[in-house]
């Protein structure tokens, strides 16, 4: 049985959930080295929202690279857990597009990340759960979640819009934040700084002159305009040129064209960390 709500740490969120909303960050999670090398591929979807669909989708996507992945969805709202468990019954019955035997479960929980005794998570995805908190509360939430990771595990914490066209996230390990990523739908993109409204809580109030993330977004916008002639060859080619331009300008860009083609750009955390 799930633990009582008195054990759960955190505040109930709006619970906004949409099919395919988290596809951008899910592609990132599927690339994490820990997922391939761990002996216990337990992944946590923390704060899955009003529907369990994001947990089912994540399990489906990660199973392509780790067939034995095990997904645990956590929510602080008992009603949402009951809804997800009802959805799980439908999955088990074979009446959905998800594999009936998918290793997925749901239970009550928050930032304390309740797990079966002796187990730790390889990956924790905490998306759209810190937006309503004060920036001063972020570090404590990170610390709680990081304490539930196995050796070499990763916490991915971030935010996206309601339909998943704009997303950003921070990837952390036991020592703290390591990288910052943005991922955008490139077709129809006016300026990369549209992501400013969907920055993680640790950065969203820092997009002001004098802060590193403000410089980062300003440089992205400038290069997006510089390379506007490449729009004739498609938005991907334009974005690849922007990403290469950021690297050439000295930004510590992580990864290469295989990620850039997805509309992603990742830099080392120190490049955008609050001053």
Sequence-ordered SSE layout with sheet pairings:
Blueprint: H1 23-30, H2 33-37, E1 42-46, H3 53-62, E2 70-75, H4 78-92, E3 104-108, E4 121-127, H5 138-146, E5 149-160, E6 166-173, E7 176-184, H6 201-204, H7 212-226, H8 235-248, E8 253-254, H9 257-260, E9 264-268
Parallel strand pairs: 1-2, 1-4, 2-3, 4-5
Antiparallel strand pairs: 5-6, 6-7, 7-9, 8-9
Helix pairs in contact: 1-3, 7-8
In short:
With 275 residues, the protein is α/β, with parallel strands linked by helices. It has nine helices and nine strands.
**Strand order in the largest sheet:** 3-2-1-4-5-6-7-9-8
User: Beta-sheet strand percentage?
Assistant: 15-25%
Distance between the termini: 45 Å
Q: What characteristic shape results from the CA principal axes?
A: globular
Tell me the radius of gyration: 19 Å
Number of distinct helices:
9
SS content category = alpha/beta
Order of helices and strands: HHEHEHEEHEEEHHHEHE
Largest sheet: 9 strands, mixed
Oligomer: single chain
Total strand segments: 9
Low-confidence stretches: 1-6
Average of the residue pLDDT scores: 94
Helix-residue proportion: 25-40%
What features would you describe in this structure?
The chain is globular and about 55 Å long. It is an alpha/beta fold and 275 residues long. The protein has nine helices and nine strands. Helix 1 (23-30) packs parallel to helix 3 and helix 7 (212-226) crosses helix 8 (235-248).
């Amino acid at each position: 049985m799930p633990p009582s709500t008195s054990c759960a740490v955190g505040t109930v969120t709006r619970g906004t959930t949409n099919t395919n909303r988290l596809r951008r960050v899910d592609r990132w999670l599927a690339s994490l080295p820990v997922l391939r090398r761990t002996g216990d591929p337990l992944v946590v979807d923390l704060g899955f929202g009003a529907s369990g669909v994001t947990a089912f989708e994540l399990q489906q996507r990660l199973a392509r690279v780790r067939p034995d992945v095990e997904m645990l969805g956590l929510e602080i709202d008992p009603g949402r857990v009951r809804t997800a468990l009802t959805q799980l019954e439908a999955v088990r019955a074979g009446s959905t597009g998800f594999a009936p035997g998918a290793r997925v479960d749901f239970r009550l929980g928050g930032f304390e990340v309740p797990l079966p005794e002796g187990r730790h998570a390889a990956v924790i995805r905490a998306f759209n759960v810190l937006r309503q908190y004060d920036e001063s509360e972020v570090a404590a939430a990170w610390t709680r979640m990081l304490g539930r990771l196995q050796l070499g595990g990763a916490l991915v914490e971030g935010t996206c819009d309601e339909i998943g066209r704009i997303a950003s996230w921070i990837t952390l390990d036991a020592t703290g934040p390591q990288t910052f990523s943005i991922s955008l739908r490139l077709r129809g993109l006016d300026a990369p700084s549209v992501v400013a409204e969907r920055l993680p809580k640790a950065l969203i109030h820092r997009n002001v002159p004098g802060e590193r993330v403000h410089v980062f977004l300003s440089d992205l916008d400038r290069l997006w305009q510089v390379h506007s002639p490449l729009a004739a060859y498609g938005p991907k080619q334009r974005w690849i040129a922007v990403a290469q331009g950021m690297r050439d300008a000295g930004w510590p860009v992580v990864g290469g064209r295989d990620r850039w083609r997805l509309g992603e750009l990742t830099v080392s955390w120190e490049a955008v960390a609050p001053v």
